[in-house]
Each structure stands twice: as structure tokens, then as C-alpha cells.
Design goal:
Number of helices of chain A: 8
Oligomer: homodimer
Order of helices and strands of chain A: HHEEEEEEEEHHHEHHEEH
Largest interface: A-B, 63 and 64 residues
Shape of chain A: globular
Chain lengths: 257, 257
DNA sequence: CGATGATTTGAAGGAGTTCAAACTTAGTGG
DNA sequence: CCACTAAGTTTGAACTCCTTCAAATCATCG
């Protein structure tokens, strides 16, 4: 019975041994191992995953990893650097849907339409691993742990976006910006970086665009938080001096509606 | 080689024949077949899917399908009726994250944490099919088409939420509400109902909550649209008299930021 | 060092909220 | 079947948060 079912698999997967230039390109030796797609895989399974990972791509600051409308063939795991994803609306204005950092996956929103739904632009010189989705799908049949983890990642993406929806729908400017800072803080912490001092890789304008606020509002909020002793700012450098207070602001009194 | 790989499957799936009370409970005979999980499956595969679908559950108007924090064991396919999903924030206020209708899947956001991330409440007397997720995962190994379709559905959910994010972050009240109406319209059309005349199953307050506006704003917008001849309204009944104009409003001039 | 892009700050204006009150609908019990 | 009630909706007026517009200041990089 099982055999019959398995025979209906779409194509026969022929494992490909890692190529020479892949040696430095391995999930097994990657420092993001615990954050990225191979999370929770056995050593053997990680090697199977290694076998399908495509080339590493470097994207210079401001460069496009993919364009909206591009046919979807790969997911991308960020190895190094930061990205923003944005759409361009009917009237030509840019609308930022998210900021992504090392260990995060780009392209999940393209699976259903088989076309990328947004632009992915590097905020600094960055590097990604190309993950051919068709080959990943083939691996799912062999590595249930990988499939389960992949579902977790997609589900997490949904949850993340729900939180952003709540932020945009219900929070005042001050609350939004506090939530934004707290969010960055916790993501850096997960990656082993300081949760209180980091660089804002994006422009004020991009923060505002993402949070549904103007650049002036962001600037004013930075000044206010600075005056209140919540943060220290120097251009792109920011230090969160009172993380608990910022967290309280982020949770704090939403609009009543 | 393949056999070895397949042997690593987490558990041996023993197909269960449809139980007696399942006869009326089949994907194969369900009118939502083309919209829901079985989309694109062969007849044989649809029967396999039938084998794992749990009981049908009736939820009366106002009843909870699940609560936020509940352990996640099932996805739910809406068979009949409408739901809203909402969270309750720290200060006890309700924040609506979406409205769902027949053929749509509930619970995708719970996969990553294995706990439901929101409440699901029936907006009218409704009915859902329980889909035990663990058994669905077992089926994925046997029915690649099902897996692929499932990924599409998750990806679609991400895209949908991105659109809502854009709506909340960038649109004025008028534009949001127009987009909301146009969205309902196209979903009813897909389901074979009128795209221009339908019932609003949710309260004005719930619409406002979802769109990040007050109930008063929604009421004023309804009045304005009515005066402009774009719609006809009678309590919950609404008729879109000028769908193209509403579509234009929905696309129309976003805030500049 | 000069030019361009990015950020900050100020002042005025407006979209949408808040508060208040009237009105309508649906449901209940007499 | 009607009166009564509670819930939901509409409308008006005042206010507020954030935007818009404008101009000055600052950073970056050839």
C-alpha cells in the first residue's frame, strides 16, 4: 500500500553530491544553522539539505535580489546582511512590507502564484543562499523533520504579519515605533548580538513607510525618546537605554476605537 | 535508495476506511471541493483525504471554534457560515485579524507554536470540518499534490495578510473601506454568489476594528457612499451599485507619507 | 570642499477620533 | 401582537494626533 502511494511521487529524486565550490556553502557548517531551515535536522539530513542548496549570491547595498513579478524558483536564506521587501503600488509609490535579517527566509509569499509578490532589496552588502524550491519539495518526502520545520517557518511568517497588522491597525505612532525598536532588539538578541545597541540599517524614511508614519514623525519620536532618556541616537547607531520602558510603551494603551 | 529514504518516515500510516457517519462528510462530494484543501486532487487521493477528515462541528452564532492559547491539533475548513478571528490585547480590548468564509482554512497560524494565536468566533450558525493536522502531515508523504496545494494555501495566507498590512499602513479611511467591500465582493463571486449584493455578516464595530477605524467612521463612510450612489444599504444588506468606482477608490490615491 | 541626500525642527492644517445624544432594530415577555 | 429593553447604528460638534509644507541643519562621498 505504502509503496503504491510512494510511487505516485512526482519525480524520482536523485541525490546530488555536494559540488566542490559548495564546501564553504554548507548548512552543516553555517553559523545560522540553529535559526534557519536546517534547524533540528540530524547531521545526515543536514547533509542531504546541503546537497540541494544552490550557489551563494552576493547582493551589493541597494541591489535587488529579485523583482516583483519575477517567476518563483528559489527561496533565499539570508546568510549575511539585511534586506527590505517592498511593493510598488499603482501610483508608483513604494510600500515596505518588511525588514529581514540573517537566518530569515525570503520568498515564501511567492509559492502560491509562482511569482514574487514584492521586491527584495539589500540594505547593505549582503549574501544569500539560493534554495531551489522544487528540489526542496523533493526533499520533504525524505525528511519529515524538514517539512515540519518548513511549516513552522511559514506559520511563523503568518503570525509575524498578524502582529504587524495589529500594530498598524491599532497602535499610535509612539507605540508603533517602540514596538519596532523592541522587535529589532529581540531579533538581534536571538542572533547573539546586543539587544540594546545596534545599527538601524534602514533610513528614517523606510522606517516610516513600514510603520505607516511620515519621516518627520519618526524623527520627532526619536527626539522625544532621546529627551525622555529611553534611547541614545547617533545617526544610524541606536542604544536602547530603557528596554523595559520601551516594552511597556509597545504594549501600552492602544487606541480605543 | 528511495526505499531507504522513505523508511525514515516518522510513522507508518495505516489508512482508515471512512466511518459510517462520514458518508455525508466527504471532501469528494463537498461543494467546496474546488476552493478548499482537496483542490486539484485525483479522485483516489481525495478519498485518502476523506479518510482522515474528523467530525463535522456545528458552531452556533457567537460560539467559539477555538480559543487563543488552546493547544493546536486541528485545522478547520469552513463548510458553512462565517467566522472572525481576533486577539485580545494586554488591556483586554478585542482586535480582529480577519473574517473567513466557506472554503477557507482556520488555524494555519497555530502550527509554529502549537497553540492557537487567536480566537475563532462564528458570525452566524456555522459548520466546519475538523482536519487533524498530524494525520494531514502523514498524508503529505503519500500525496505530493496535497502538500503542494497546502503550501500554496499557506503562501496565499501570507500574501493576503501583506495586502491587509498595506491597507492598514497606507490607505485613508475611504480607501480602506472601499477595499474591504471590493474584497468581500470578489470572495463571494468566487463562491458563486452575487458580487454586488450580499449581507454584511459582521457588525459595523467589527468592520471598524478590523480596518483600524472607529464605528462612527464606518457609519459615516456608509452614509457617504450611499449619498454618492456607490452603494445601497439596508442594515446588514448591502448592494454595490458601482463596483468599478469602488475598485478605483480602493486602488486610488494612497497617502503620500 | 562642495554637492547631494538625509534628517531635524517648526508651524499650520486636516483626517479621523472622541464624546454625546438621538435614533433604529431585534429580541423578550406580558 | 404590542410594549419594553438592550444592542447596534447614525449624526453632530469639538478636539487631537499626525500630516503637510517649509526651511534649516547635518552627513557622506566624490
Amino acid at each position: 500500500m505504502q509503496a503504491v502511494q510512494f510511487a505516485t511521487a512526482p519525480s524520482v529524486r536523485i541525490p546530488v553530491p555536494p559540488r566542490a565550490f559548495d564546501v564553504q556553502n554548507r548548512c552543516s557548517t553555517c553559523s545560522l544553522h540553529q535559526l534557519c531551515l536546517p534547524t533540528g535536522l540530524s547531521e545526515a539530513d543536514t547533509h542531504l539539505l546541503d546537497g540541494i542548496i544552490g550557489r551563494r549570491r552576493r547582493i551589493p547595498r541597494g541591489g535587488n535580489l529579485y523583482h516583483m513579478g519575477d517567476p518563483f524558483t528559489n527561496l533565499y536564506a539570508i546568510r549575511l546582511g539585511h534586506f527590505k521587501t517592498h511593493q510598488v503600488s499603482s501610483d508608483g509609490t513604494e510600500r515596505i512590507t518588511g525588514f529581514q535579517m540573517a537566518g530569515e527566509l525570503l520568498g515564501l509569499d511567492a509559492i502560491s502564484s509562482e511569482r514574487h509578490q514584492c521586491y527584495a532589496v539589500a540594505l547593505e552588502d549582503s549574501e544569500v543562499c539560493e534554495i531551489p524550491f522544487a528540489r526542496l519539495e523533493e526533499l520533504f518526502a525524505d525528511i519529515p523533520t524538514l517539512l515540519r520545520h518548513f511549516h513552522r517557518m511559514m506559520s511563523q511568517e503568518i503570525t509575524r504579519e498578524q502582529n504587524t497588522m495589529l500594530l498598524l491597525g491599532n497602535m499610535r505612532a509612539e507605540q508603533r515605533f517602540a514596538a519596532f525598536l523592541v522587535n529589532l532588539s529581540s531579533r538581534y538578541k536571538t542572533r547573539g548580538y546586543s539587544s540594546t545597541a545596534f545599527q538601524l540599517r534602514m533610513l528614517r524614511e523606510e522606517i516610516g513607510n513600514y510603520l505607516g508614519l511620515t519621516i518627520e514623525s519618526i524623527s520627532r519620536l526619536l527626539s522625544r525618546f532621546k529627551k525622555q532618556g529611553l534611547i541614545r541616537v547617533n545617526n544610524r547607531e541606536i542604544e536602547l537605554l530603557d528596554l523595559p520602558a520601551l516594552r511597556a510603551l509597545a504594549l501600552g494603551t492602544p487606541v480605543t476605537h
